[in-house]
Structures are given as structure tokens and as C-alpha cells.
Amino acid sequence: AALASTMPETKATTAYPNASGGRIYVDIGKSTERQRSAADIAKELREKVGRLVGAEYVVLDDLNNGAQKPVQIRFYGTDTRKLQQITQDFQKTMAGIKGAVDIGYSEQDPQNELQIELDSGLA
Fold first, then answer.
1. In the chain, where the domains are located
2. I need a surface site. Which of 12, 28, 31, 108 has the fewest CB within 10 A?
3. Residue 101 and residue 70 in contact, taking contact as beta carbons nearer than 8 Å
């Protein structure tokens, strides 16, 4: 939040820390009230945040109506080695796309799963 506060477009910041990291929202106001685009501001913020050691980050220039990222792709399956390979290959492909930024991999802890199907006729 402190880094974002140094930028002239920043009107306010809100931080939500949690055990796994946290989120910081930066209000840069309406596009008609500033000289630079959200993409340009995000680029500068990436450069500033990139200097932090030991932190992984994602800078979004559009909150996309509250979604975690403008584009999220999830791969599911039972073979974790195969899923990792597919994910790594996909990341390499995405990295070659002009304009693709903050390409990352978020491995979630394996979850035990129980699936129950109800027979609505018997329920």
C-alpha cells in the first residue's frame, strides 16, 4: 500500500492481510480524472513491487467485477504429475502472448473429496 501511495493517481488504498498473504486495493479514480491509463499505472506499480524480495504478486489493471484475475484457467484431474506438466506447458504458451502479464501458477493443497448423488425420486 505504501508503494502505491507514492503514485500521484492513488486516491486511497485498502489492505486485507491474511495468513497466506493478502490483497491491497488501490483506488486510482476515474479515467477522466487522470492523465495515465490504468494499464500504464499498473505497469509502474509492477516495477515498484518487483523490487520486493520474497513476495509473489499480481497487479490487475481491471478488477473485472470482483473476479480474482481477469482470466483464470483451472486444470483438474487425479494425476498430479500430468497436471503439473500441462500447467507448465500452458504457462510457456501464455508467456509468448503479447500483453499477457503476471502469469502465475497457484497450486492448491490437495483436498479430500466426497461426492454424493441423490436420487430425487427416492429423496
1. 2-64, 73-110
2. 108
3. no
